[in-house]
Structure formats: C-alpha cells, structure tokens
Design a protein that fits this description.
By secondary structure, this protein is an all-alpha fold. It has one domain. The longest helix is centred in the middle third of the chain and has 22 residues. The radius of gyration is 16 Å and the shape is elongated.
Amino acid sequence: MMGDNEMPTENLRLIRDFTLKYIKAIEMTGVLMRIFSFSLVSWLGPASPFLFVWIFNTTDAIMLSWCSFIKRDPAYIVLNVFWIGVGVVGIIRAVGFAH
C-alpha cells in the first residue's frame, strides 16, 4: 500500500514515462504551437488576441521545458523556462495588471 507522500512521486513517474514514450510528438506539438502563436501575431498585428497568444505560448513553453528537463538538456531548459517567464509577463500585461 502506498503512503501519502509516495503518490505525487508515482504520478510524476507516470507523467515522465508517458512523456518519454511520446517525447518526439510532444516536442513537435510544442514547436508547432510556438510557430502558430508567433505567426498569429505577425499576421494580425495589433488585432491579435494577445491573451490567447500568451497563454498558448506559455503552454508550449511548459511542454518544451518538461521535455528538456527529462532529456537533461541545459540549454533548452534555460531557453524554455525563460519563455515561461516571458509568457507570465505577457499574460499579466494582456489582462491589464501591468502597463
């Protein structure tokens, strides 16, 4: 029987195993999401749905960061964690909390 403190570790292991099984597809999905979000801004300019774009971009950064952590790739960990930070700032600005 599993103790209370073991369940998060087991869940994390299941997520990691799933990610490893499908890592190429997850990474490609994240990259395509990023291309889509920046393309949307390029095409629509000021008419872009910025909150959607930042949420979408931050989601792909989380996906790609997780893959980078699993692969132990320091350069991509730094790059994608940076994009999470940029995304959080973008979301805050798009909502109107910061100008």
